[in-house]
Design a protein that fits this description.
215 residues; mainly alpha
């Protein structure tokens, strides 16, 4: 948990309305967790919070060296500092209504706008939309791709193919997308691990078309 109570986007299942600050923290987390473990991104968020820098205006006003120092734990901190500055600049200069208002617009349009921002790819954009915007879009990550390929559900690791596979088969529900993805993450961490997968214990063994990848 971050100091203000926002959890990792993967496990953000609080059902009450989110505050603007919580939405913003989730977006920061989605950027900071790129290519690193959540614990490293969480440490960076805690440092930003302790410095009183968890707002778009404060982050854009921070000297680059200071911002890089605060988020150093997240890895690739130089690139991520620029990504944060660009995203926060978009909020400060182009989105006066804040994240809540912005993300409540037409889904396709908002997603295109996010993808047009430097440093935001499909996974990051969809994480922001699902967890901060509570929009009905399924997030695909490395865990999702690993499971789908090993189980034989997909023939390639394409993001949009994987997203379509799950969205075509799941009820159109933001809550279900949220919790289903969290279950995939737990399954991948406990059973469908990158190395030494525990296929014989996996609860999805009966649905795995390849019947596991263990030797």
């Amino acid at each position: 948990m971050t100091p203000s109570g926002a959890a990792s986007p993967v496990y953000f299942t609080v059902r009450r309305p989110l505050s603007e600050r919580e939405r913003f923290e989730i977006c920061l987390g989605a950027l900071l967790t790129q290519n690193t473990a959540w614990r490293n991104a969480s440490t960076a968020l805690e440092a930003l919070t302790a410095d009183g820098a968890v707002s778009p205006r404060k982050i854009t006003a921070l000297p680059r060296a200071r911002l890089r120092s605060l988020i150093r734990s997240s890895g690739y901190y130089r690139q991520k500092a620029e990504k944060l500055r660009v995203f926060c600049g978009e909020l400060v200069n182009g989105r006066p209504g804040g994240i809540g208002q912005w993300f409540s617009g037409p889904l396709g349009k908002v997603r295109e706008e996010l993808l047009s921002i430097k440093g935001i790819g499909p996974e990051t954009a969809d994480s922001m939309l699902l967890y901060a915007g509570r929009r009905r879009v399924f997030v695909v990550d490395a865990y999702t791709i690993r499971l789908a390929l090993r189980a034989g559900w997909l023939g390639c690791g394409d993001y949009h193919a994987a997203q379509k596979f799950f969205m075509d088969r799941l009820p159109r529900s933001e809550r279900i997308y949220n919790e289903y993805h969290a279950l995939i993450v737990e399954l991948a961490k406990r059973y469908c691990t990158k190395s030494r997968p525990r296929c014989h214990d996996c609860p999805l063994r009966g649905l795995c078309l390849k019947k596991g990848v263990e030797s």
